[in-house]
Each structure stands twice: as C-alpha cells, then as structure tokens.
Specification:
The protein has 13 helices and 14 strands. The relative contact order is 0.16. The two termini are 14 Å apart. By secondary structure, the chain is an alpha/beta fold.
C-alpha cells in the first residue's frame, strides 16, 4: 500500500439526472459538451454505464458503497443507510485523505445512531459518513440563496420558485431565463467554492474532493445564453408509443407511473399531468434540459482550468458521472424510475494521469455504478473489499479488459412509500412487494416485478424503444425462463457477503481475498 504522500488527488464529480447519451463525445447530434469531451479525450469513456437504482438516495447508495440495492437496502429517498456499510469516503479517510464535499450526498442517517427526536432524522439529505462538508448545498439551497441575496439578487421566493422564469407565472413552458445569471447558478456557486478551496491546497499534499451538482435535475430552467442555445425542433425522435394511453396499456406499473407524474415537479407553477403535455412542450422542456447540461459543462471547464492553473491537473484522478438519468419525454414521462434504459444509462468518464496510453478510448462492456468505489480505491493503491458487488475498472484504464467480465447490466427500482402507502394501496400489495429488478444484455432485457405484477421481456435489436412486451408470447418463453434464472443466479451470487466471506478457524479469522 503506497503512503498518502505518494498518492494522487481524487476529484469525484456527480451531476444529477444526466443521461448517458447526452454527450457530444458519445455521438449526440444536438447536445454540445466541449469540456466533458475534453476530459474524454484525456480519459476513458464507459459507453454502457448504468445506475444501480433510482431516485437520488438509492442511486447514490450504490455509487458510494459499491453495493447493489439488495444489499445496501436504501430503497427510497428517506430510507436510512445502515451505518454498518463501508463507503467511498470512509475508505479514502482510512488511506489518509480528508474527503471534502461540495454539494450534497442525499444520505439519510441511520436512526440507531441518533436520539429519536434528533432533527437530523427529519431529512434524507444527510452527509455521507466520512465526508467533511466544505460547502453543503441540499435541495432547499438556502446557502446559495443567501449568497444570491448578498450579490443583490432577490432570492426571497426561495426554492423552488427561485427557478421560475423572471417574467410570467411559470405555468407555461418557456425559455425565459430566471432572475439569476449564468455566473450565479447553483453549479457556479459550488464551482467558486471548490476553486477557493483548491487554492488552499498544497501541491505536495494529496486531497480528495467530491463536487455534487444538482443540475440538470429539475426544475427545468436555464440562464442566458443556454436558454436559447437549442432549438426545440432539434434532437432525436422520442422513444414512445403513438399516445400515452397505449403506453399505459402495456403494463400496470407504466399506467400507474403515468398517472403519478405532475407537471409542477418539473416546472414550478405548472398544472396538470406530465403525460398530457403535447409534443411541442416536451421538445421545449428538452431544449431547456440540453441547455442545463451545457450550462453545467461550462462549470466543468472552469474546474479543469483551476486544476491546471494551480498545478494539480497532472496529479489528479477525475471521475465524472451521474447518479441516475432522465426520461426526458420518452414514453411520455419525465424524471427517473421504473425500468426504462433512459432512467439508468448515465455517463462515466475516468481520467487517470498515469495511464495516458488509453486516453481518448471508449469501453463498450457493461459497467455499473457499484464499480466506481472499488475503482477509486484500487487506483489509490488499496485492495477493494471482496464482498463489494462492484469490480474495479482499473484494468480497462490500462487497456487490458479483465477476463469473465459481466455481459449484462443490472438495476433495481423500489416504488414503496412507507409514509404515504401510495403504490401499496394502488396495487393492493405490501411495501416489500413494491419492487422490480432488471437484467439487460446487448440484445434482451428482462424485468421482474414483485407482488405478482407481470414480467416484461424486450428484444432490443428489434425493439430498441421497448414497446413490444414478449414475455407472454409462447416462442419467447424459453428466453423468459433463461433470464428469470439469470436474475435469480445474480441475486444468489450477490446476497450480502460481508461476513459470508469470513470464517473463524483454529488459526483465527480468515477472509476470502485477505
């Protein structure tokens, strides 16, 4: 194990709700991301990278712990993260770093460690154990709102109304900008704080920083010039049926989700359901989403420049990814969740300054959010724990794909609501049954539901839009059985191994991989 003095800096950047196809370096014909592209030219892009769960807290639990949802058990925003689990910040701290946070981690604290009336138990927006919060910025964004007020911007509307257009009531989809400028976005605020902190770091003392941007998460609004950067007429056709009613007929869960989505969650002040927005409005929203991506990309450029200016660029491992993705009009939906690829396919670019031979390359193997923690620990010279569900991507960075790599991506989605019991009442099932699991290969995708809800099977070669369920067609029953068995084998292999890989013997405690 190398001493911390000989280790590199680590910069982990997460953006929230950034789709994996929305990078110009990934071939998107509309979105322009020059600074993410610049990182891709110096690093390795993982083209088939998928989140492990949704929404934010479950997705980040997979990313931070290296464990699938079946093991970390963070099912929803508000589900506590069991304190027994290790995570990327604690692991880095053991190696001598002080992991420093700019933004948020959306980790609900373990109630077992707090008194029943402790105020920290009233929010899922806690800080992941192991991080020192240099600049916290949870969803209420009060720190940023105070900063705006100090700059003379009227921020009295608070969150989320601060993100309404500067004129109008916000009920319509418009590209009118908000009251704050491109230099005053939450992403710009966090970038400023990181750059300030970076100036305090000595080049001889390795550091570990995590910048967690909210953008391009809704509310969907963009500052000038990003609000008019994209024409709503541009962009690919949406993946969806002829109308939302046809989508709803495809599966009971899809019908439920279409009925749940409200416009106000995405555009403050908007009335009605998302599914009833017409083609023009979906395209206007998507143009704003593209603008928010470019707006965030501009902040990445400021970060890259600061690293260079302060002589940290050549000694910093950079990981750029997202927690989960965004439906963005596909299947008449916005947001994240369910089983569609659009909610889970996310960017991953890793730039290791010591591995220049693979700079600019792309990996088409399936990789998952759980791979990030073991990769970072491996790059820092330590051995990832054997019980982690993720695997280190370090061999790919060296241009040597490992043997027996997975040929499928897996993710899970839990739609229980302990406080409101919404899905439970709708389907007449228990919270423990409100879940689905996905195994997705290059050609086939199988979705297994709890609670007796019917499964789904798609042939992605013939039906990339996932519009024709083959699960009940007799000719495809052998494939359905094969994939159900694959899913069962995957779960059996990855059930919590933390102590299952440890044995007490006459010689003492032995562990697999120790």
């Amino acid at each position: 194990m190398a001493s911390v003095q000989n280790r590199r800096n680590v910069l982990l950047i997460t953006c929230d709700q950034w789709r994996g196809d929305c990078l110009s370096s990934a071939g998107h014909q509309t979105v322009r991301t020059p600074h993410a592209d610049a990182l891709a030219r110096e690093g390795v892009s993982f083209r088939r990278h998928f989140a492990g769960a949704a929404p934010c807290s479950p997705a980040r639990a997979c990313l931070y712990t290296g464990l699938y949802q079946m093991n970390n058990r963070v099912c929803r925003n508000g589900t506590p993260l069991d304190a027994r689990h290790d995570n990327i910040a604690l692991a880095a701290r053991r190696l001598g770093y002080e992991p420093t946070l700019f933004g948020y981690t959306d980790v609900a604290p373990d109630p077992a460690l707090h008194a029943r009336g402790d105020p920290v138990l009233r929010s899922y927006e806690g800080v992941l154990p192991g991080f020192t919060a240099r600049q916290l910025l949870p969803e209420h964004q009060k720190q940023w709102l105070s900063w705006l007020a100090a700059r003379g911007v009227d921020s009295s509307a608070g969150f989320p109304d601060i993100h309404k257009p500067v004129s109008g009531d916000g009920a319509e989809v418009t590209n009118t900008p908000p009251v704050y400028s491109r230099e005053e976005t939450p992403a710009a605020f966090l970038t400023n704080e990181f750059r300030r902190w970076l100036g305090e770091q000595e080049t001889a003392s390795p550091w570990f920083a995590h910048i967690s941007f909210l953008s391009p998460h809704p509310p969907f609004i963009a500052t000038e010039p990003f609000n008019t950067m994209y024409d709503p007429a541009d962009g690919p056709a949406f993946h969806r049926a002829a109308d939302w009613q046809s989508e709803a007929e495809a599966h009971p869960y899809v019908a439920y989700e279409l009925g749940q989505q409200k416009r106000s969650k995405f555009i403050p002040g908007a009335k009605g359901k998302v599914r009833d927005w017409g083609e023009e409005n979906f395209r206007r929203i998507r143009a704003l989403y593209y603008g928010m991506i470019s707006e965030t990309d501009a902040q990445l450029g400021r970060i890259w420049q600061a690293l260079r200016d302060q002589n940290h660029w050549d000694n910093t491992v950079i990981v750029l990814t997202s927690d989960h993705a965004e439906m963005m009009g596909d299947h008449f939906m916005l947001g994240k969740g369910g089983f569609h690829d659009q909610s889970y396919h996310i960017p991953l670019i890793i730039r290791d300054p010591d591995r220049r031979k693979t700079a600019g390359s792309a990996v088409d193997h399936f990789t998952e959010a759980v791979d990030v923690m073991p990769t970072v620990i491996d790059l820092l010279g330590d051995a990832p724990a054997a019980h982690l569900d993720g695997r280190s991507l370090k061999p790919f960075l060296a241009g040597k794909p490992p043997r027996n790599w997975r040929d499928a991506a897996h993710w899970e989605f839990d739609f229980r609501s302990i406080s409101k019991q919404t899905a439970e009442r709708h389907f007449g099932i228990s919270p423990q049954q409100c879940n689905l699991s996905v195994v997705r290969t290059q050609r086939f995708k199988y979705v297994h539901f709890g609670g007796g809800l019917p499964p789904l099977l798609f042939d992605l070669d013939e039906d990339p839009g996932e519009l024709r369920n083959l699960a009940q067609i007799p000719d495809y029953l052998p494939i359905r059985l094969e994939f159900a068995e694959r899913l069962l084998a995957w779960r059996a292999e990855h059930l919590d191994q933390a102590l299952a890989l440890v044995e007490l013997t006459e010689e003492g405690v032995l562990g697999y991989g120790w």
